[in-house]
């Protein structure tokens, strides 16, 4: 099963017990009308667990989608459940949301409003281009896919390479003169997982990994790459 997470940075806060107190009672209900039907959408947090360096739980939220039933559009509610984990690491507090990008972004925004009464206190984590480049070049033989962004060639927005030992190719060095590494797929030397990683810290495991192992991998191998 493919596992995905997006990592965020929590600004100006690292008190996990305080965060747990604020999140314990979080529940939000919103009314929405779709196709002349009214729905009550609920977002809430459950299963909170706290330790010395981690606060984790489950963020549940409703969304309305429309299905075709005998030629008639029929709105229905679907409930998503996104596991999350606040992690203290070397003086920084990170939030990992284990969902696809768009839903992870929505969860992070709701967390920011619930904890700090405003947006902008939980922001995207970033890996600097030179850090991702160095990480790749220390693992030449383990990188299988590279995407470049910021490309300065007219009418070309991204460049990509697929194959073995990509750092040792002429094309790799040529592409570096035109863009920066944005996304890589690599094999972890320490754990053997096949992982996709972007500079805005979307992490995807293409290997069979249990969620607790995925969390530890992120802590041990991805957090050290993030800009403070």
Mean pLDDT score, rounded? 91
Count of helices? 5
- How many domains would you count in the coordinates? 2
Task: Please provide the count of β strands.
Answer: 12
Distance between the termini: 31 Å
Helix vs. strand class: alpha+beta
CATH architecture of the largest domain: 2-Layer Sandwich
CATH class of the largest domain: Alpha Beta
- Radius of gyration equals 20 Å
- Beta-strand portion reads 35-45%
CATH fold annotation of the largest domain: Alpha-D-Glucose-1,6-Bisphosphate, Chain A, domain 4
What is the H/E string? EHEEEEEHEHEEHEEEH
Query: pLDDT below 50 for ≥5 consecutive residues: which ranges?
Result: none
Helix content: 10-25%
Largest sheet: 12 strands, antiparallel
What form results from the Cα inertia axes?
globular
